[in-house]
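Can anyone check this?
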Amino acid sequence: MENNSKNGKRIDKKVIIVMVIIGLICNAVLMIAGNLSKKSVEEQMEAYDRLSLDTRASIEKVEENSLADVLADRQVYFSGIEDCDITENTTIYLENDKENEDIFMRYQISDKETGEVYEVTDLIPAGEHVEWVPGECLAKGEHTLLFNQAPFFSWEEAESGYVPLTQANNEVVVTVK
């Protein structure tokens, strides 16, 4: 029986030694896994930071182009002014079509030959008009006039609060009788 107890002690020592070795191996594996996991989390955080910077850069880019985005697929409607015979009291309506919605219109009317400017309007809101009586500044006879229509978009980011858009020129022969 002593042999059995000696053998039992040896078995206990062997089991303890094996358990210690297994414990050391498990501890080493856990340390390695922890370091890899920590490194992976740090890499993920760095990637997240880069993603955040990229996102902010994308947002800034959209804000820079937002005027173009707002005006994309928009059309500006110009009023047609045709050759006409008028009297000294005839009124011509300088209009901004209601379809222009948030686009304002400015007119400049000048003599084609001399360049003399007869009328410059303030910005006209969409759906409204300014009345101009050519007989007040034009002598009787035939006059070739240039009607320049300049649309402006109301934009807070602009220094003046408005952004000039494309322009249209209309050459019109007006005869004052």
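Reply from J.R.: I decoded it. The domain at 84-176 is CATH 2.60.40 (Immunoglobulin-like).
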